[in-house]
Design brief:
single chain; 193 residues; mainly beta; Jelly Rolls; four-stranded antiparallel sheet; globular
């Protein structure tokens, strides 16, 4: 049996609040599972009926060397220098931070771990807040990480698109000219609110 309604019945006081559980949930919009390598991932014609978006990736790069790359986001094909980002990341033995302004894409922050075996997958959860609000710039935040037999990374990233247009298209690209690997999965969810 599922919960369909939450109330404050039995709570002392004069205020009675009713919250429908149907107004606060996630639902899938689109998923891409790669059967071959790809240089970019695109979500287009994004519906505008949600409060926020969440992008989840379980991905790897099609390259055999070590290091990391970052997934970058472009919204609505805007290539102007209207993006910025901040980052915090660590390996367990070292830590770092960074930022960038006036860029043509923003970091989603979803780390992509390069590995000598090309088989290491990275996870990343990116929230795109108030994506359809015409009175706000669009904010992005990501928690991400990967493990390559103890040589992994973890990161917390934020990004900004300095535009008030509703987001209808998202393009994901690795920072380097490297393709996403086979079996990488990207899912976009809408969050009601």
């Amino acid at each position: 049996m599922s919960v369909t309604k939450l109330t404050t019945n039995g709570v002392n006081g004069s205020k009675y609040d009713t919250v429908s559980a149907d107004n606060y949930y996630m639902e899938p919009i689109a998923t891409t599972l790669l059967g071959s390598t790809a240089a970019t991932i695109t979500f287009d014609n994004i519906p505008q009926g949600y409060k926020h978006l969440q992008l989840r990736q379980i991905a790897r790069l099609n390259v055999s060397d070590t290091g990391t790359e970052i997934t970058k986001l472009r919204f609505n094909d805007d290539t102007s220098a209207s993006y910025s980002h901040h980052s915090l990341y660590g390996t367990g033995s070292s830590a770092g931070a960074g930022s960038g302004v006036s860029q043509t894409m923003t970091n989603s922050g979803a780390l992509l771990q390069r590995s000598n075996t090309t088989s290491v997958f990275t996870v990343g959860i990116t929230d795109i807040l108030d994506y359809s609000n015409v009175n706000k710039f669009k904010t992005v935040r990501t928690l991400t990480g990967a493990d390559d037999n103890g040589a992994g990374w973890v990161g917390l990233y934020s990004g900004l698109w300095m535009n008030t247009a509703p987001i209808t298209k998202i393009v994901l690209t690795p920072t380097a000219a490297i393709n996403y690997g086979v079996n990488s999965r990207f899912s976009l969810y809408g969050i009601r609110g």
